[in-house]
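Posting this for the archive.
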Amino acid sequence: MTMREPPPHVGLRSRLAGNWTILKGAARQRWGRLTRDEIEEIAGRHEKLAGKLQKVYGLDRAQAEAEVDAFVKANLETLERGRDSGGSH
């Protein structure tokens, strides 16, 4: 039996959850219609964020998931560049 790599979105989902404390401010900026309570409720769960985007922004499931994936990719690349260059904290 051969081992298959998980689909790319699986890694994004775990990275969203693992970095939610850092990313939730960016999420609030990106999706300003989400309340602070909704952002806290999402707690880094990809499915929960996609569901909120569907409800609040009227997106279909595929659009909402694509939005979340694009958000995670863009923000994690920024975080990683900051770490690589010795980011200022």
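The first helix runs from residue 8 to 18. Helices lie at 8-18, 20-30, 36-42, 46-57, 61-84.
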